[in-house]
Amino acid sequence: MNIYDIAAEAKTSISTVSRVLNNKTNVNPEIKKRVEDILKKYDYKPSAIARGMVSKTMKSIAVLTADVRVSHYARIVHAIEHEFSKSGYNVNVCNTGNSRDECIKYININAEKQVDGIVLIGSIFNELINSEEIISTINNIPVVIANGHVDGSNFYSVMVDDKNAIRSAADYLYDKGYKDLLYVCDMDTASAKTKVNGFKESLKLRDILGVDQKIIKTIYGIEGGKEAADIIIDSGVKFDGVVFGEDITAIGAMKQFKKRGYKIPEDIAIIGCNNCQETLICEPELTTIDNKPELLGKLCAEILRNITEGKTPEKGISIQTEIIEREST
């Protein structure tokens, strides 16, 4: 059963059936009921592609993220899906890992599906899609990067002020009387590098020497946090406060610091970043930076929605963070 069969059985035109399918008002009520009865009789479901050709929109958005299991990314995805579902859009979520090949694969798939827009979550995409091959594939599709930036007329950005976030965290600890701070970096993205620069800036403003030696490198996650704690303790360096670029790594470090006899915050103050749910269930509860992922996702959705409605959105928006003080400081 197709639109031609429906028109024939309803004894009307194809264009009239199309108007009924698209909920247009300029249809004779009697004919409309006749068409609707036939649609119900055959349980007819119109092709999304055919409907898209008529309405000039596929009502579909693609969201690419490195790993949707990461709670920070998941919260952004949820906010985007929630915003678009209110407007009847379908949201396709794609996990790319840190692989350029996977990124290219999903970009091509969604370009072929003629999605109405793409959201890229994370500064990792600054590098993953920054090639002529990828950019040319999506040059007719609006793209919003959550906390990233790529030059291009069809690219838009919603940025978190990561530099100011970490600088403020260090300033906060100094203002509370802590003097010997370290920073733990567990990623190699543009955002992670910006966070490191924020920490360095806070120290340099206080004329603290040897800033580079106060940066500890590890891997992301609980085990990376444990490893960082061991590195710090075994190095013999003087410290009374540690700022982390990610909550989950900070929680792993707290676990290891406590295992090795340190009290938090009596011996060490610890701050994480992302304000994930895990910060409330660890012991002590973790002071963290709220980088507002729900707001980030909502703003990304608003930019794309404005474009689909023919409006001209801002090319770049900045979000300011907030320190959430808990028991670890």
Query: How far is the first residue's CA from the last residue's CA?
Result: 67 Å
Count of the separate structural domains: 3
- Superfamily (CATH H level) name of the largest domain: Response regulator
Mean pLDDT: 91
Task: Give the percentage of residues in beta strands.
Answer: 15-25%
Largest sheet: 6 strands, parallel
Name the CATH architecture of the largest domain. Answer: 3-Layer(aba) Sandwich
Overall outline: elongated
CATH structural fold name of the largest domain: Rossmann fold
Order of helices and strands: HHHHEHEHEHHEEHEHEHEHEEHEE
Given as residue ranges, the uncertain stretches (5+ residues, pLDDT < 50) are none
DSSP E strands, number: 12
What is the CATH class of the largest domain?
Answer: Alpha Beta
**What structural class is derived from the secondary structure elements?**
alpha/beta
Spatial strand sequence of the major β-sheet = 2-1-3-4-5-11
Percent in helix: 40-55%
Determine Rg (CA atoms, Å). 26 Å
Number of helices: 13
Pfam families: LacI (PF00356), Peripla_BP_3 (PF13377)
GO molecular function: DNA-binding transcription factor activity; transcription cis-regulatory region binding
Domain HTH lacI-type: 1-55
Keywords: DNA-binding, Transcription, Transcription regulation
Task: Offer a few descriptive terms.
single chain, 329 residues, alpha/beta, 434 Repressor (Amino-terminal Domain), Rossmann fold, six-stranded parallel β-sheet, 13 helices, 17% strand
Question: In a few lines, what is going on in this structure?
Answer:
With 329 residues, the protein is α/β, with parallel strands linked by helices. It has three domains: 52 residues, 434 Repressor (Amino-terminal Domain) (Orthogonal Bundle); 132 residues, Rossmann fold (3-Layer(aba) Sandwich), CATH 3.40.50.2300; 129 residues, 3-Layer(aba) Sandwich (Rossmann fold).
